[in-house]
Amino acid sequence: MKKIEYAINHLNDLNGIIICPYCKEDLFIRENSLVCVKNHTFNISKKGSVVLYKTSKLKKDKIYNTELFINRRNFINSGFYNEVHSKISEIINENKPNIILDMGSGEGTHDIKIIDNLKDKNIKVIGLDLSKEGIDLSNDFIEKNYVGIVGDLNQLPIKNKTVDLIINFLSPSNESEMARVLKKEGIIIKVTPKAEYLYELRKSLKIKSYENEDIIENNIKNKYDILKKYEIVNTYSLDKLLLNYLVKMTPLMNNINIIPDIKTITIALNLYVLRIKDGR
After folding, report:
1. Beta strands 33-35 and 28-30, pairing class
2. Which residue, among 162, 82, 150, has the nearest Cα to 116 in the 3D structure?
3. Pairwise CA distance, residues 101 & 122, whole Å
4. Could you tell me the end-to-end alpha-carbon distance of the chain, in angstroms, rounded to an integer?
5. Please, which residues have CB within 8 angstroms of residue 149's CB and are 6 or more apart in sequence?
6. How far is 195 from 192, CA to CA, in rounded Å?
7. What's this model's pTM, rounded to 2 decimal places?
8. Running DSSP on this structure, what letter comes out for residue 251?
9. What is the layout of strands, in order, in the sheet containing 33-35?
10. What angle do the packed helices 66-75 and 240-249 form, to 10 degrees?
11. Are strands 41-43 and 182-193 parallel, antiparallel or unpaired?
């Protein structure tokens, strides 16, 4: 099948979950579009993407562009995040969700690595990001019960209490929107950087470390119950090709033309399994 045909099938299965960003009414398939009862219409592209965003004038991001996403895909495919992907898949297999939402999915490579390790191949995974370039690339994986949607993390085009599990992988999040769309017993898998994350690159560029881990964790504790926490720290060798992928995938290199001379890179992450506190 063509990508648009896969997208139509997936979006049809998500009937009652995906909603119009304007009026919040349900969306349904009409030919090659999603349409609500008020006739707001959102075309599905040949790449399988649909823009569910309040403005048709999406701005092209000068940093998060196709080149960055392709290099990020190449870097991820080189195995640097394999351990965290395996742990996320393990958590999903234990919890057996039907609908997964990745908030800030980018080009979808993290998602497909996770999906490939799932026991239940019928789980629907929605990748949502404001970058159309990223979502167009993410729909390379549309054959695997995956569909990418262009949308705003601060106004998710998702109906209340319809998502079983949210992934938030090194991406900004909106806690109130998470609470709105997640089912009562749903969980969040949140991946945040440790201070050592990309340490060698940051040191070479004389860029300060990430926000203090204690501050991040205290913010998380204020909003969620931490069911589990895993710390994943690995240091990998870099050859010239891998260094090139790294340099071209990270916003840290914006407006910096010098290629750093580093031979290793540290991937250091905290992985939280969270549940929204009662009363939120």
Report:
1. antiparallel
2. 82
3. 14
4. 43
5. 18, 49, 50, 52, 126, 127, 128, 135, 157
6. 10
7. 0.94
8. G
9. 28-30, 33-35, 41-43
10. 140
11. unpaired
Residue 275 CA to residue 199 CA, distance in Å, equals: 30
Rounded distance, CA 174 to CA 157, Å?
Answer: 13
- pLDDT tens for 89-145 read 999 999 999 999 999 999 999 999 999 999 999 999 999 999 999 999 999 999 999
Q: Quick check: 105 and 99 in contact, CB under 8 A? A: no
DSSP 36-93: -TT--EEEBPTTS-EE-SS-S-PPPPSSS-HHHHHHHHHHIIIIITHHHHHHHHHHHH
Confidence label for 205 from pLDDT (cuts 50, 70 and 90): confident
> In CATH terms, is domain 49-276 a member of 3.90.320.10?
no
231 neighbors 212 (Cβ within 8 angstroms): no
Within the chain, residue ranges assigned H as helices are: 3-13, 66-75, 82-95, 109-115, 132-138, 175-181, 199-205, 213-223, 240-249
3-class SS of residue 13: helix
- 146 phi/psi in degrees, rounded to 5: -120, 135
Tokens of 130: 């404001």
Gap between the Cα atoms of 23 and 37, Å rounded: 9
d(C-alpha 69, C-alpha 135), whole Å: 10
Q: Which helix (H) or strand (E) holds 152?
A: none
| CA–CA distances in Å: residue 49 to residues 15, 16, 185 | 16, 19, 30
Q: What is the pLDDT of residue 258?
A: 76
Q: Which residue is it, tokens 């085009």?
A: 157
CA-closest candidate to residue 207, choices 195, 217, 215: 195
Domain boundaries, the chain: 49-276
Q: Minimal CA–CA distance to 167: which of 136, 139, 133, 129?
A: 129
